[in-house]
Amino acid sequence: MHHRPVLARAVSRLAAVRPGELWVDCTLGFAGHAGRLLEAGARLVGFDRDPDALGHARQTLAPFADRVNFVHGDFRDVQALLADLGPVDGLLADLGVSSWQLDRPERGFSFQATGPVDMRMDRSRGEPAEALIRRLSVPELAEVIRRYGEEPFAGPIARALATWAAGPGPFDTTTLARAVVGALPRKAAAKRRHHPATKTFQALRIAVNDELGALEALLAALPGVLAPGGRALIISFHSLEDRLVKRRFADLSGRNRPQAPRRGLPPPPAPPAAFDLLTRKPVTAEADELDDNPRARSAKLRAVQKREGVAA
Ligand SMILES: C[S@@+](CC[C@H](N)C(=O)[O-])C[C@H]1O[C@@H](n2cnc3c(N)ncnc32)[C@H](O)[C@@H]1O
């Protein structure tokens, strides 16, 4: 397998695939993780919402063709997409966009190359980022940039984006990035470790693809799609995602006490936990991986296992 996926060792250990098990890889991408699950003997259903990614995965996984089912779809629909296959023994999601997507100028994810302001993972549906920028009011844009980019200068950047959209063009990722940089106080921009447009581009990408909505739907569906003993492994890349995963896994494994119905009243007893946490703390990359894969720097892996004897 030419592509080394993030946290590969930890994924293999926590997945603990037994030959013949049915797994779903919700985010096939370049199929690095999928290849390893298949090498360990799994049968696999692989989703990607990007048809180009799916095409690459199909080629990479050709040696395993008799054990893989490729599905062009959004993992928010996991339950419906798996309806005919029944519960799975394992589920993996390696969230966000791939470096391949980021590096293609025509996809519009990157401020380092000139391309259309698109950012959709699935270009067959939905609204490109440029249309989103034009549709939202300045306060709405500022909210997107603040919430999904955790950007302290969201207000001035939102105003700059509105000016950019009303200007003469050209409307591409380079002029957009320039508008963002121009909205930041020079000292603040110079102090940043990453390119000053990183947070804004992240925010727009998350909004365009409703990435957090998709993750919430996936997390909600877990009890219904996993077989007893089934494992769910999720790799996230920023705190907004990790927070959702951490909270949901804590709920599933009975680590969050239910809220009291009113102040002064005791909380109701916690329902019996249906899951066990396999990771008390998120697993992060080891030094050797950080050396050859900068994307691994912010990766966090969390895993749960459905208890035996709990119905799907
Ligand atoms: C980080 S890459 C996955 C890399 C992959 N694990 C590997 O080893 O090569 C994420 C992939 O998931 C896809 N993706 C992101 N969100 C998705 C969603 N909600 N439903 C389906 N696919 C999604 C992206 O299009 C991208 O190809």
Topology:
Layout: H1 8-15, E1 22-25, H2 32-39, E2 43-48, H3 51-60, E3 68-72, H4 78-81, E4 88-94, H5 99-103, H6 129-135, H7 138-149, H8 154-166, H9 173-183, H10 186-191, H11 198-208, H12 211-225, E5 226-236, H13 239-252, E6 275-277, H14 287-292, E7 300-306
Parallel strand pairs: 1-2, 1-4, 2-3, 4-5
Antiparallel strand pairs: 5-7, 6-7
Helix pairs in contact: 7-8, 7-11, 8-9, 12-13
Bound molecules: S-adenosylmethionine (SAM).
S-adenosylmethionine (SAM) is lined by residues 3, 5, 26-27, 29-33, 47-50, 53, 74-76, 94, 96-98, 121, 214.
Please tell me about this protein's structure.
With 312 residues, the chain is an alpha/beta fold. It has two domains: 8-100 and 211-306, 3-Layer(aba) Sandwich (Rossmann fold), CATH 3.40.50.150; 122-208, DNA polymerase, domain 1 (Orthogonal Bundle), CATH 1.10.150. It has 14 helices and seven strands. The chain has helices spanning 8-15, 32-39, 51-60, 78-81, 99-103, 129-135, 138-149, 154-166, 173-183, 186-191, 198-208, 211-225, 239-252, 287-292; strands at 22-25, 43-48, 68-72, 88-94, 226-236, 275-277, 300-306. Strands 3-2-1-4-5-7-6 form a seven-stranded mixed β-sheet, with helices on both faces. The protein is globular, with a radius of gyration of 21 Å. The two termini are 34 Å apart. 44% of the residues are buried. The chain binds S-adenosylmethionine (SAM). Residues 3, 5, 26-27, 29-33, 47-50, 53, 74-76, 94, 96-98, 121, 214 line the site of S-adenosylmethionine.
